[in-house]
Amino acid sequence: MKQEKPLSLTVLLSNWFSISMLFISGEVVLRYGAKAGFVMVLAFLVALILVFPLLKEKRLSNVSTDWLRLFWLMEVILLQLFIGIILIKEIFSFAIFEAAFWTIMGSLFFTLLLKYVKKLLTLFEISLLSLIFGMAILLPNYVYLQKGLETVYHNLLHYHPKLLHQDQTGINGLFFLLVLIFFSKLFVQIPVLRQVTGSTNGKGFRKLIIAGIIWSTIVLAFSTMTIVSITQNMTIVHSNELVPELLRKLSTPFIFYTVLISFYIGTFIKIALSFLTFLDFPHKGSLSPKLIYLTLGCLIVLVPYLYVKEYTVLAIFLYVGALLSSLTILSFLFSLVKNLTMKNQ
């Protein structure tokens, strides 16, 4: 049988990267202090290392991952929809229901476009990576040039010392929860990771490590922007508005709208790429019931938000991620019991 060529880092990173990285890393720093970005990066690298032995484990085929992948896709869609709604409200001052409508329509359009025009796959992947890389390089530098590194540190030291010397209560729990969440996300993507490593595990693992370092660098770059925003004493109604309001305050209208529109399109691309990845996974049974459950799950979370508006991007990431982690652990336990039962018979 002809051996398939290993997937490139472009494909892998397009699975890992999303606009939500900017919002999640920023809110983690806001809640847990300046060191929280490093905690988030360390948790991801630990989870990546824990997944390495599983890439060679053939018995994982006994673990049912269909529903795990469904929850993974639901989390991706919810995060991107939430961020898309936030962005379009900032851009056009839409009412929340109008913002939700156009965001959902845009997501459906990009998803159907990619599903039926597969030639756009590489373009979508490169566009998303270019957007994330470009913004990770430009935005932190632009923001710090506007205020000055020494000024930012002075304001933190004298007016926001809590951010530098944050009480570490809860940081250990956050670390272990993030390890579980990242591990479950990587576990769901094991078929993709195996295609990246190929048959040459040594070289393949090096590719995964390089990808992990790149991911970590991007997260740290985005998390530093939150530190600047805190020193600006901005009046915001919700922590979700922190990043857009920082850009509004420190940049020209042209830069502000260009960045936010780029991010908005990036949410559509991420949903489309994730949905196509989900379809490419091996599935047991018909896809139709799973897609119905996916739609209902997204609506159950999204509709209350449109009325209450109390969710944060980090809350969605942690709550759905914790659920995904719990289901992953249960799947392992059921698989273990099943294997032991078969051996005893």
UniProtKB/TrEMBL annotation:
Signal peptide: none annotated. The keyword Isomerase does not apply. The chain crosses the membrane at residues 7-24, 36-55, 67-88, 94-114, 126-145, 169-188, 208-234, 254-279, 291-308, 314-337. Keywords: Membrane, Transmembrane, Transmembrane helix. It comes from the Bacteria. This is Spore germination protein. It comes from Halalkalibacter wakoensis JCM 9140.
